[in-house]
Every structure is written in structure tokens, then in C-alpha cells.
Write a structure and sequence with these properties.
It catalyses: (6S)-NADHX + ADP = AMP + phosphate + NADH + H(+); (6S)-NADPHX + ADP = AMP + phosphate + NADPH + H(+); (6R)-NADPHX = (6S)-NADPHX; (6R)-NADHX = (6S)-NADHX. This is Bifunctional NAD(P)H-hydrate repair enzyme. Its EC number is 4.2.1.136, 5.1.99.6. InterPro entries: Carbohydrate_kinase_pred_CS, CARKD, Nnr, Ribokinase-like, YjeF_N_dom, YjeF_N_dom_sf. Its cofactor is Mg(2+); K(+). By secondary structure, the protein is α/β, with parallel strands linked by helices. It has 2 domains: about 220 residues, YjeF N-terminal domain (Rossmann fold), CATH 3.40.50; about 280 residues, UDP-N-acetylmuramoyl-L-alanine:D-glutamate ligase. It is about 40% helix and about 15% strand. The protein has 18 helices and 18 strands. Helix 3 runs parallel beside helix 4. The longest helix is centred in the C-terminal third of the chain and has 23 residues. The radius of gyration is 26 Å and the shape is elongated. It starts with 5 loop residues before the first strand and ends with a helix.
């Protein structure tokens, strides 16, 4: 049975999710706040040693209420904790007011701050941002903006509760206010959509999702177009070979890649495919690349193009279950002709990357010939060539979803939070991977992985999702061994076996 992907909801829907939980669990709003803040406090005690001092910046809403609960719980652990009240004399939300009173009544130190220069944090303290929550709908200016800018200038470690103050939950195109630059963000139940955009990385830092057990009924019934991947959901979609499977039943992958100028792209894509379960792999290359494939990937069959230097076409596709094309392909006129021949002849499963995408971007007729359900794997610049420039990452996400629906394709937009857009308008964000993977050749490995998954029987969405998750996880394993700076694209391919072992073991256990 397939596990559901975890939904990402818009910040405008959060109040309804909370209220449904309060009414149907049932639980009081104060106790729900206590539950969330208790989980957050447990994480703080894991991340930071008992010798740390905690300075909490509190506003006037429920995010500040979370902050007061955290302060009280830290105090109860005999940790030095101070709350800087940035809204003295202002009306607080009901739950915030109750938890402020509880903190002060239990001996908590609460310092009222009316000017930014009066905010004087303890040296080397951990600053906890509880100023604004996810309900913020306007840029932060004035006094509170000054406080946020002061926080950003300090060397202290900063932790944001649920969302960095000043960051809007989705679209920040017109947000010219101050935004907290957190080192860590502990967010409740699901990441906010804004966390998925590279341009906001400097604000959210490392993100950890805390499951505060909102009512499963509302999470199940409420529709969303946005999801994030979990190991459980990905593993449940990975097809397991049957007992009597053989190379003829596990799929024949055709990989079209490489030129004499870029033979390594074909090698890396082939290594990704070989490590991803295809029964047979045929690599179609120009004649002058043949020997390198034989030497570097001895498990692969080699099919030689009629051209010595570039791709010009494939003559027989009768035994192929999936085609991958693009890594190191080049964009010559001969290759464009070969691409046209291929798209006229092939209507099956397909993954298109790199130079093959550039050929599509340069020729609208070629794009119209791509089979429905094909998987495209552009990086942002390649996607810009296909769909035009975007104002920011949120605008790009909308373009991505529109493009996938218009052309009935699955589009994997590669990046720090790779997102898969499906023709039905849904978007799936990957949470694995690290900056060490931002190296030449990493995308070639992904092409090989997805092509192999398609050939071995996975539907396009599952192949894209599983492939992206496994690719990122393999990169994480490589970074753990070699450090992010030391990761090579080939290391990602080499670590894939360990990823599949983990996912398969999960399936066996279930």
C-alpha cells in the first residue's frame, strides 16, 4: 500500500487546521500551543548544550505565545532564559497573554523593549525568534524592523519558531521589509511553501519539521497542490523485483548521450542507470565515444551511432522500455535532426535532459512532439529557456505548474529543493540533497536513475519522485563520507546501492 505524500498548506489555511484539531481531538488551544512548544523545547535541548543562554524575542501573537512556553520550559530545566518583550503595553492574543503570565509568575525574566537600541542580548546567547508567526501578511517595518535588522547583524545563533519573522509564507515578491536570517527554523507539522525557494535559504537556514499531531482528518480531507517527500512515501512506491525476475523482465533502458567533447556525461548517466535496477542498459553514442563506455561501464551494451561525432538517430527501438536523452548530447544541426527522428518514432516512456532540453527550447515544433507523460529535468536556466524568465522563485513555481499542465509533461526543476511538477497541477518538493551536489555531472546521474526506473516498470511520476529522492539521499551519503566539498558526481552514483537497500528494507519490513 502506498503511503501518502505529506501536504504543504498555505499559511492562510493554518487557522482552520488548528481550529479543526481543537474542535475534533478535542484539545484546548492552550494545550495545543503547549504541545507544539514542548516538542520545540526538546529539539533545542538536543541541538544546544545545557551551558547555553537563551534570549527569546516575543511579539504579541500566538508565535510569541509559543516563545513564552519555550521560555518557561527552559527555565524549568534550570537553563538561563530571558524574554525580550517587544510589545510592552500592547494587547496580546489570549493564549500569548496566558503564557506570558505563566512565565513571569514562575520567576521568568521578562525585559520590556521599546527601542531597538534597548535590545541588549547576552553574549553568545541563542536568540529565539518568536516575533511574528506564519499569519503575517505585510512587510515588517518601523521599530520591529529595526530589531530584526539588529538581530541579523549579531554573531549569535538564531532559531526561528515556525517561520522566520518577516518572511511571508508564500510569495515574497513585494516584501521589502526586514526578515530574520535564522540559522535554524523549527516549523510545525509541515514546511511553509516559502521554505522551498532558494532565494529564501538565507532566512530559513536548516529546517526541521516538528509533527505536532494536527487532526489527521483535516490533513487528509483538505486539498493541497503542494507536497513534500518522505522516505516512507517514496519507499512505498518503489517496485520490488519478483522472485523469478530476470534481465529481460526488469526493463531495457536506452540512453542517448555523449559526444567526443563530453564523453563523461554519457558515462555518469550510464552509471546512474546501472545502479538503479534496469535489467539491460544500452548506451547509444557516437563512434568515437564507444571505447570509453566499454571501459568505464562494462555492464552496459554499446550501440554506435552512424556519426563519428554526434547523435544522428536510432534505427531500432523495438526492444526498449524507456529512453533517456540529453547528457553531453550537443546541439548541432545533425543532432537536432536526430532528435526529430527519435520523437517521430518513439511514443513511450522518456526522460529528457541537458542539451536535448536546449533543442526543445529552440524549436517549438520539437517540443510539441514530445510524448505525453515524458519527464523533463531542467535546471533553472534550462527551464527559463523553455518557459521564459520569472520574477522570483514563487513566480517560477507557477510557471512550472502551468508548463507541465499545458504540455502534459512531468517537469523536474533541479535545485536546492528540487520540485517535480505533474500535469494535474500538483508539485512535489524533495527534502534530500546538499550543496555538495552542485557539481558538473550530478544531473547526468539523475537522468540515468529516472530512465532506469521508467524502464523497470515505474510510472512517470513515481520514477521522477523516487529518482529525485534517491539521488539526493545518495548525495547526502557521499557528503557524510567525503565532506560536501569533496563530493563528485560519480560518488552519487556509487552511493545509490545503499539508498536502494534502505528503501527496499523498509518495504520488506512493512
Amino acid at each position: 500500500m502506498k503511503n501518502e505524500y505529506r501536504k504543504i498548506f498555505k499559511t492562510s489555511e493554518l487557522r482552520e487546521l488548528d481550529e479543526y484539531t481543537i474542535d475534533n481531538e478535542p484539545i484546548t488551544s492552550l494545550n495545543l500551543m503547549e504541545r507544539a512548544a514542548s516538542l520545540l523545547t526538546q529539539k533545542l535541548l538536543i541541538f544546544f548544550s545545557r551551558g547555553h543562554i537563551f534570549n527569546i524575542l516575543a511579539g504579541s501573537g500566538n508565535n510569541a505565545g509559543d516563545g513564552y512556553v519555550v521560555a518557561r520550559l527552559l527555565n524549568e530545566k534550570w537553563l538561563i532564559t530571558k524574554v525580550f518583550d517587544l510589545c510592552p503595553g500592547k494587547q496580546l492574543s489570549l493564549d500569548c497573554a496566558v503564557n506570558r503570565e505563566r512565565f513571569v509568575r514562575n520567576g521568568g525574566v521578562c525585559i520590556e523593549v521599546e527601542k531597538a537600541e534597548d535590545f541588549l542580548p547576552d553574549e553568545n546567547s541563542v536568540i529565539i525568534d518568536a516575533i511574528f508567526g506564519a499569519g503575517l501578511n505585510r512587510p515588517v517595518t518601523g521599530f520591529l524592523g529595526d530589531v530584526i535588522r539588529k538581530v541579523n547583524e549579531l554573531p549569535n545563533t538564531v532559531v526561528a519558531i515556525d517561520i522566520p519573522s518577516g518572511l511571508l509564507g508564500e510569495d515574497n515578491r513585494e516584501n521589502d521589509g526586514a526578515i530574520v536570517e535564522a540559522d535554524y527554523t523549527f516549523t510545525f507539522q509541515f514546511p511553509k511553501l516559502a521554505f522551498m525557494f532558494p532565494e529564501n535559504g538565507k532566512y530559513v537556514g536548516e529546517v526541521e519539521v516538528l509533527d505536532i499531531h494536527l487532526h489527521p482528518g483535516i490533513l487528509r480531507e483538505r486539498d493541497s497542490s503542494y507536497y513534500f517527500l518522505t522516505e516512507e512515501a517514496v519507499a512505498s512506491r518503489l517496485l520490488m523485483p519478483e522472485k523469478f525476475s530476470h534481465k529481460g523482465t526488469l526493463g531495457n533502458t536506452l540512453l542517448i548521450a555523449g559526444t567526443p567533447a563530453m564523453p563523461g556525461a554519457a558515462v555518469l548517466a550510464a552509471r546512474g542507470a546501472i545502479r538503479s535496477g534496469t535489467g539491460l542498459l544500452t548506451v547509444h553514442v557516437p563512434r568515437f565515444v564507444k571505447e570509453m563506455i566499454h571501459f568505464a561501464v562494462p555492464e552496459a551494451l554499446v550501440e554506435v551511432d552512424s556519426s563519428d561525432y554526434c547523435f544522428s538517430g536510432v534505427n531500432d527501438l523495438s526492444r526498449v522500455q524507456a529512453v533517456g536523452i540529453g547528457p553531453g548530447l550537443g546541439t548541432s544541426d545533425v543532432t537536432r535532426y536526430g532528435m526529430r527522428r527519435l520523437l517521430k518514432a518513439w511514443r513511450g516512456k522518456m526522460v529528457i535532459d541537458a542539451d536535448a532540453l536546449n533543442l526543445l527550447a529552440a524549436d517549438a515544433e520539437l517540443l510539441s512532439m514530445v510524448p505525453r507523460g515524458a519527464v523533463l529535468t531542467p535546471h533553472p536556466k534550462e527551464f527559463e529557456r523553455l518557459a521564459g524568465k520569472s520574477e522570483n522563485d514563487f513566480d517560477r513555481l507557477n510557471k512550472l505548474s502551468t508548463f507541465a499542465g499545458l504540455h502534459q509533461l512531468y517537469v523536474v526543476l533541479k535545485g536546492a529543493r528540487t520540485v517535480i511538477a505533474s500535469p494535474d497541477g500538483n508539485c512535489y518538493f524533495n527534502m534530500t540533497g546538499n550543496p555538495g551536489m552542485a557539481k558538473g555531472g550530478a544531473g547526468d546521474v539523475l537522468t540515468g536513475i529516472i530512465a532506469a526506473l521508467l524502464a523497470s516498470g515505474h510510472e512517470p511520476l513515481d520514477a521522477a519522485v523516487i529518482g529525485v529522492y534517491a539521488h539526493g539521499k545518495a548525495g547526502d551519503l557521499a557528503a557524510a563520507e567525503f565532506g560536501m566539498r569533496g563530493v563528485r558526481a560519480g560518488d552519487i552514483a556509487d552511493k545509490l546501492g545503499l539508498v536502494w537497500k534502505t528503501l527496499e528494507t523498509y518495504n520488506i519490513a512493512k
